[in-house]
Amino acid sequence: MTELAAPLELAGPEVPRYLVHMSPLHLPSLTTDVLVVGGGVAGLSAAIAAGERRRVLVVLKGGRSETATNWAQGGMAAVLGDDDSPAVHEDDTTRVAAGLAHEDVVKEIVGDGPEVVDRWISWGGRFDKEDGAEDLKLAMEGGHSVARIIHAHGDQTGAEIQRLLIAKAASMDSIEVHEETFVLDLVTHGQTVRGVIAWSHEQGYHVIWAGSTILASGGIGRVYRESSNPKGATGDGFAIAYRAGASLRGMEFVQFHPTVLYVAGMARFLVSETARGEGGKLVDRTGERFMPHYHPDAELAPRDVVSRSIVRQLGKVRDSNVYLDMRHLSAERLKERFPVIYRACAEFDIDMATDLIPVHPACHYMVGGVATDAWGRTDLEGLYACGEVGSTGFHGANRMGSNSLLEGAVVGHRAGTDAAEANRKARVATDAEPHPQRTHSAALDLHDMDNALRSTMWRLVGIEREGAGLDSATRRLDTWLHLVSQRVLGDPFGWSLTNKLLASSLITRSAAAREESRGTHFRRDYPQPRDTAWRRDILVSRQGGP
Questions:
Q1: What is the CA radius of gyration of the chain?
Q2: Residue 191 DSSP SS3
Q3: Which of 183, 143, 193 is nearest to 58 (CA)?
């Protein structure tokens, strides 16, 4: 095992500790043993595991199906085939992770994959099988050296997992779910998390006291102009963990999916990497297949390579998008393998069997996140993080396709188990003080600021970066953060915007600090990796070093 160098610790921006100006001790409250914030694969896995022995409250920002898990077209990687082994999956994962994988964590998570699949099947999971056989059908995706990806209903794996976990959680009397509830901040006493401040239309502001709190709040994609993420992916969990004093790791590593359906007037719709695994070819407007010029694995190269290659090819041919060619497959095969994508294309008069599919890269996955161990434990007592909001070190500098559902399921289950076994008391001691009174937000056009933020992040902190642009983005973000921090923002849009600004600042500061290119992080002014100086993590926190 090759050890990483000691992490670089950064101090993040100065921001108020709480988004609200009243003390948690003065708010209406409720109490639970384990609180889970988020309801995707990680959150529900945690809730189900904790619910075996404790009372669990799951708090959702939206509805039960408004998660990135539910949107996931790709599958889940697990070692199930006769030609596969944990060692091979570990090697693939660490290779794609570009030198920053925490190899002990990789070993643990990969090792738990088959157990997850067995558990889901025992609960009634319906995954695709080989024709006329009981064996699960295993697919190939970019970065993997063997076929190890399980799918459900073609390209609806996430929806099947979401259905399964919702049904399992609903069958447990120990689990309660509150929908349409916005979590503003963690409540702390010293370095211990005691619960959260939340808001809903029905209850208004209230405190949820909890013995253990598990963040599974999803990603960050909506800080970028082009995104494949659901509307709730505004980085809330990253921001509230930072404000409470937790460390965040690898925030410079943002993964951009290379193929999102790119039609004017349409919400960006993911065209799964599995389409390239099924032989899809990328061509430009001249019909040239260009990926072999950029990487020996062509369309099956890692996602960051494919995304950068598309951007460069667009610069050469001066166009707004490239095309995915799936015309080698019959309409029947396409409808069977990609039913959701096929219907989405058909809505815009694109026949996958006869037409080229216009695609463009978009922000897809946050590789970094709240720093945890392999059990989801953060550096704050009583706080766990799992799924996309957490960073175990499993993905290193680049996530391999279909490893995210695996990590979310494994670490979510572990976090729920550990949180339940800890059996902490949900005491109401807290350090929280009221905010100084701030002005109101009438002078700010928050929607205009949101548009400016997403444009800035896409242009200056996107697929390719450089020092001058990162410095410019940092100054803008600091100004916007200062403006919103001086005002009382009293609705979910304002709170989400504040969180987006803070999360964007953490991404930008980390990207500026890493003076090299590695994994998903590419700097035009430092185009090569620099192992001597930078084969190490970057941690950012309120208490970070110089």
A1: 22
A2: coil
A3: 183
The CATH-assigned architecture of domain 436-541 is Up-down Bundle (1.20)
Determine whether 399 is an active site residue: no
* Of 64, 303, 337, 465, catalytic: 303
> To which H or E segment does residue 488 belong?
strand 487-488
DSSP 136: B
Is residue 22 within 8 A of residue 393, CB to CB? The reply is no
What residues form DSSP beta bridges with 186? 196
Instruction: Indicate if the pLDDT at residue 542 is higher than 70.
Output: yes
Look up the CATH number of domain 257-364: 3.90.700.10
Q: pLDDT tens across 344-353, in order?
A: 899 889 999 9
CATH 3.90.700.10-classified regions of the chain: 257-364
17-26 burial by CB neighbour count: b if 16+ within 10 A, else e? Answer: ebbbeebbee
The whole-angstrom distance between residue 184's C-alpha and the CA centroid of its chain comes to: 19
Distance CA 251, CA 492 (A): 24
- Separation CA 339–CA 335 (nearest Å): 5
Q: What is the pLDDT of residues 135-178, one digit of tens each?
A: 899 988 878 999 999 999 877 888 899 999 999 999 999 999 99
